[in-house]
Amino acid sequence: MNILVLNSGSSSLKYKFFDMSTEKALLSGHVDGIGLDRCLVKLDIDGRKEERKILVKDHVDAIILAIKSLKDKKVISSFADITAIGHRVVHGGERYSQPTLIDENVIKAIKQLFELAPLHNPPNLAGILACRKILPSVPQVAVFDTAFHQTMPEEAYLYGLPYELYEKLKIRKYGFHGTSHKYLSEQAIKLLGKKESKIITCHLGNGSSITAIKDGKSINTTMGFTPMDGLIMGTRVGSIDPLIPIFLMKHKQYSLAEVENVFNKKSGLVGISGLTHDVRGLWKASVKGNARAKLALSLFCHRVAFFIGGYIALLGGLDALVFSAGIGENAWHVRKHICKYLEHLGIEMDYDVNRRNNSIIVSTPTSKAKIFIIPTNEELQIAKEAQELIKTAKPMVREEKESNTNKRLKELNKKN
């Protein structure tokens, strides 16, 4: 079975094509700058990287380009070689707790959630609709970022607001990065060798979240109604006093748009440091004595440790702490700073092994919990979930007509 996995952003398309017999990505691609003059197409085939500039007007053209790259690089011989398409969809609300075959009802539901994920769900749907147009007979599967967190109990996902705001407007904690947290927890369970487990997964990147996972199920997570809640992030504010935006608008004449812009794009690491959201740059600056760069990193680690401690209490102990994503996988100094807070709980890091950054296990033999560094693989998780769903779904008649798609490919070639 071959699965094409798509992650559609507002002006980008990331994709991977998996041979599920080996779970290997045969080709990875990134169309960056859809609708812009600076659009670049990047390909990775077995470690061989290619890059070129190209004009791509919309998501339909981007997906045609992706499919064309599969043929051009002889990864597939015909469109019929694509068994299914798995889509990352950020928000599934309360309705979706499992991967779902996409039909008109699913499309309608994704549209209804535009208001809750205005930066993510519209481009996610654009990718789905483009695939429907290009490859109408290939089954499509939606894997929702929020799905994994639907196992949270009421006391974890409800806010201290009037209950009717939840009943009528569905204002609650949804959590995000669910596909990543699920993948990481499954890998940690394999390493631990037991299903009954207490795991905390830390997906730390430009967007960051932490999840408490008991016996493979999410019981709490840091992101909330939106992906802005929880940890301070690259540019996002994280959890704050809810009266702060009211104060800014009421007494300092900030507009609603200005407040949203500050909280979403000018806060977090870049806001504290005044330099950058990139931890690599902050580390270099802090080593050279930049106090605000050092402060930004300290704030981040302090907040991560705060949530880890709280989640250990909710789990009733800890078997494994997992670090992943750009910061979690690569910033040894951040992991060290966080784990220093946990030493009194008996969670001990081998700081020499941690600094070498080449080991999965970075805890000491005497640590009360394992500390793992596990590279996340959301695309593979989406492919696996799509595969399982397709296996159990009713057989579909596949008579892929390539003429219309070939016509669009020729049009795209002429433009470039």
Characterization of this structure:
- The protein is 41% helix and 18% strand.
- Strand 3 (24-32) and strand 4 (40-45) form a beta hairpin.
- It folds into 2 domains: 2-151 and 393-415, Nucleotidyltransferase, domain 5 (2-Layer Sandwich), CATH 3.30.420; 192-373, Nucleotidyltransferase, domain 5 (2-Layer Sandwich), CATH 3.30.420.40.
- By secondary structure, the protein is α/β, with parallel strands linked by helices.
- It is globular.
- The chain starts with a strand and ends with a helix.
Question: What's the SSE blueprint?
Answer:
Layout: E1 2-8, E2 12-19, E3 24-32, E4 40-45, E5 48-53, H1 59-72, E6 84-89, E7 100-101, H2 104-112, H3 121-134, E8 140-144, H4 154-157, H5 163-169, H6 178-192, E9 198-203, E10 209-214, E11 217-221, H7 243-251, H8 256-265, H9 268-273, H10 279-287, H11 291-315, E12 320-324, H12 325-330, H13 332-340, H14 351-356, E13 370-373, H15 378-392, H16 403-415
Parallel strand pairs: 1-6, 6-8, 9-12, 12-13
Antiparallel strand pairs: 1-2, 2-3, 3-4, 4-5, 7-8, 9-10, 10-11
Quick take:
This protein is an alpha/beta fold. It contains 16 helices and 13 strands. An eight-stranded mixed sheet has the order 5-4-3-2-1-6-8-7, with helices on both faces.
